[in-house]
Specification:
Blueprint lengths: L1 H4 L6 H19 L16 H15 L5 E5 L10 H13 L3 E5 L3 H6 L3 E5 L8 E6 L1 H6 L4 H6 L20 E7 L7 E6 L3 E5 L6 H18 L4 H6 L2 E7 L2 E7 L1 E4 L5 E5 L12 H4 L3 H9 L2 H5 L23 E7 L2 E6 L10 H4 L2 E2 L2 E2 H5 L3 H7 L4 H12 L16 H14 L6 E6 L7 H16 L3 E5 L3 H4 L4 E6 L8 E6 L1 H5 L11
Parallel strand pairs: 1-2, 7-17, 7-18, 11-16, 16-17
Antiparallel strand pairs: 3-4, 5-6, 5-10, 8-9, 12-13, 14-15, 18-19
Helix pairs in contact: 3-4, 15-16, 16-17
């Protein structure tokens, strides 16, 4: 645009257009969206990128006397990028607006004029105002868990020190990666420990992990007979990401024999159907239905486990187990209302008459994970995975909650709970994408403890992450950068957190 401005043949109208484009792109740069191309499709943007795009457009509009509600606007941002984002929020306030922000980020909490801390925990242990006032009062509050973490009165859990030496440490190594903006880099991920992948937005973290490492691991473990050939020749794969295809370019993948498989724990939905529920995904729904089928009334009424599925013969005959009736208004227009027969309970009267420990099947589905832990405490096959979900901060989720209503971060933690709770062999490489997204400091501490359990059992964990509290406890950090887009894609630092703190090339190290 700067070059076009000096073009001699431009009319005054053309010059005005150039200035307007410069103003708009400058706003996008300030919102840390400079790594995006102008023809990028909106559905391919992350939630944080869409929210920052929205914020930029409203800053330009100069509207006032409005109430803005922002949900975790710093999500997906590196610590070095948050200052500009927070300044944009302050500018929105200074224009005469009120801004309400739902946020876990330390920087955002500290800049707020008024803080409302709800808790003290989640689910049945939450829902109360623990504190409200300025940040100084929050830091001094004895009842606020948030305040105690922010004031360092409670520290993140310590992990055992693992000394990593890449010369002798078993590793997974990607050689000469050139996917998207990666600049022909070779990266080694040490095994048997916790590895963090960090860097500014658009620096190439997803290109390296999601679009290079994971596709190559899939090829390596799914095609064992082809491993020698793949180690010798260039690997060229295509990976589906939503509706887009990303070409994976790398020379080869080297995998130490320390791992026998891998598991991707991402933020993709765990079910797109409204009949999909957490109890099914974590593998306890069949066991719960089996318990109900064993009850005396069920046996007497010839009700099998299939009758206790709301997709089957035990469902309400009017709504078909959805709990809702659809009323067609003509054309393609319709409205939904609570079923007049089952009143939203989804099952037939005969099915609902069967109880287990005083609860019918609908009432069990309405239980939160935290409630179900106590209810099924004598059923180890059911309670074990529920306990993991509760420990990871998912105790407020209902067993029968439709999985499409879960956020990406919630879906990821459900997947993690399933992995930890299942009976599988160890020596697995777990790959996670921003697992602290949407987590409070309290729940981040619980996540760190669970990740350490995985490693202690002989597994390896690679995490793409921005949260400095999480990165501080990593055994090894791989940092890409220095910027986003064409300015990124290079390996600028690697090593334990202590090494990055003293590395002048590291941007992440300044915040550890």
């Amino acid at each position: 645009l700067a070059g076009l401005r000096t073009h001699a043949q431009l009319s005054q109208y053309g010059m005005n257009l150039i200035r307007e484009l410069e103003r708009k792109t400058s706003g996008l740069m300030n919102a840390r969206l400079g790594h995006l191309s102008l023809y990028r499709e909106i559905p391919s943007l992350s939630g944080g990128e869409i929210q920052r795009l929205f914020l930029t457009s409203h800053l330009e509009s100069q509207l006032d006397s409005l109430i803005y509600v922002l949900d975790e606007p710093t999500s997906g941002l590196h610590e070095a990028e948050k200052r500009e984002m927070i300044q944009s929020i302050v500018e929105l306030k200074n224009q005469g607006n009120t801004v309400i922000v739902v946020e876990h980020d330390r920087n955002t909490i500290e800049m707020a004029d008024h803080i409302i801390d709800i808790g003290p925990k989640a689910g049945s242990e939450g829902g109360r105002i623990v504190y409200q006032g300025d940040v100084h009062g929050l830091l001094a509050s004895p009842t606020s868990i948030t305040g105690r973490y922010l004031s360092r009165k409670i520290a993140m859990p310590a992990r055992p020190v693992r000394n990593i030496d890449l010369r002798v440490q078993p590793c997974v190594t990607v050689r000469h990666a050139r996917t998207n903006n990666l600049q022909d880099i070779t990266v080694s991920f040490p095994l048997g420990c916790l590895v963090g992948v960090a860097g500014l937005s658009g620096c190439g973290k997803s290109s390296l992990v999601s679009h290079t490492l994971l596709p190559l691991l899939k090829g390596y473990f799914h095609d064992p007979a082809d491993r020698p050939e793949k180690d010798k020749e260039e690997i060229d794969l295509e990976v589906e990401e939503g509706d887009n295809y990303v070409e994976t370019l790398a020379d080869r993948l080297e995998v130490a024999p320390l791992i026998t498989g891998f598991a991707e724990i991402g933020q993709a939905p765990i079910g797109r159907n409204m009949n999909s529920i957490p109890a099914t995904y974590i593998g306890i729904w069949d066991k719960i239905r089996g318990l109900f089928a064993q009850q005396p009334l069920a046996v007497q009424s010839d009700l099998t486990a299939g009758h206790f599925s709301f997709n089957s013969k035990g469902a309400c005959t009017v709504c078909g187990g959805s709990g809702q009736e659809t009323i067609w208004l003509g054309g393609n227009q319709s409205i939904s209302k609570t079923c007049s027969e089952c009143h939203g309970k989804r099952y037939s009267e005969a099915t609902l008459a069967v109880t287990y420990q005083g609860r019918n099947i609908f009432e069990v589905l309405e239980m939160t994970v935290a409630e179900a832990v106590g209810f099924f405490k004598n059923k180890r096959g059911i309670s074990s995975v529920l306990q993991v979900m509760d420990r990871i901060g998912m105790g407020y989720v209902k067993l029968g909650q439709p999985t499409p209503t879960l956020s990406g971060g919630e879906a990821q933690r459900v997947k993690l709970a399933k992995e930890i709770g299942r009976k599988r062999k160890d020596s697995i490489l777990y790959v996670m994408d921003e697992p602290t997204s949407g987590l409070s400091l309290y729940d981040t501490a619980r996540l760190i403890t669970l990740v350490e359990e995985l490693i202690t059992r002989g597994n390896s964990v690679i995490v793409v992450e921005h949260d400095p509290d999480f990165l501080k406890v990593c055994d090894w950090i791989v940092e890409l950068g220095p910027g986003g887009g064409a300015q990124g894609g290079r390996l600028i630092a690697q090593g334990p957190p202590a090494v990055l703190r003293t590395n002048p090339q590291s941007i992440t190290g300044r915040y550890l």
